[in-house]
Amino acid sequence: MLLPWNSRTCILCLNEGELTIEHVIPASLGGTLTSRILCKDCNNRLGHSFESDARLAPELRCAAAGMASDLGALAEALEVGAQYEAQFDEQKVVRKLRSDGQFGTAKLLDNSLIVPEAEAAKHISSIMRKRGAPDQEVDAAVEKWSEVEAGAMLDLGRNVLVRKWMNHPSTPAYTESAMSPLVPLKTGYEFAALILGVSILPSAPGLDRIRRALREQDEAFARSVVAERRASNPAPFHGIAFMGNKPAAVIQMRLFGLLAYEVTLPATGINFGRLVYTHQLDTGEERCTCPEPAS
Ligand SMILES: [Zn+2]
Q1: Are residues 50 and 148 in the same domain?
Q2: Per-residue pLDDT at 291
Q3: How far is the CA of 46 from the centre of ligand 1 (A)?
């Protein structure tokens, strides 16, 4: 859903120019509410900073994992690049899940490599060659490896030992950082901009502070205006809602139904009733009771 923004002024740096499409909830989390509200520079800056890592936050992935069948491809996409643990003999190995569904290469304490089975032949060839093996010997080694039983240690000569590991269940390590409070701050500010229209633009101490915090990635400030809550049950939707003025405007972002972030926007009042945007993650349906922004 693309909401209109009737201005050429970027809501973050307040410069005029060509504006680009911004995802109010980060696209990597499955957000689809968009508007042309940021200049290219600000959009890139956000995309390469706190937004880019949000996807891997353990609390988001845990919530998503509880409803993976409803989320389909999104649940899988959230895991790409995440750290997974597996046990190899006495050693715990942490590997990154790649986009092809395989785990990346890892090293054991004795310097041996754990590589995906599909890439083992390539690694064996390369190591054997480095150790001076002629083509014929390399081919024979690869052949020997392809026929070896799972679990058995195989000596390929030239001090190369290989072993086919099987059935090594990997589980998420959940060692990544929690989502930055700058994400809900950004979402809350952008949603307020879409509600208020250009009246969010004039310089005012509270609003300038938010814009500066987002541009400079000031996590401490974001933490001071974002409160985290938990709903009782996960549900396959993302949402943003204006919760009223208390006395400053409070906007809540909900992710996967479960995780709620209440953003207080200092010195901002919103003269509308309840405003809600929801994106149903299982059906793709979006709803918004937002007004047309003032031009
Ligand atoms: Zn800008």
Answers
A1: no
A2: 63
A3: 10
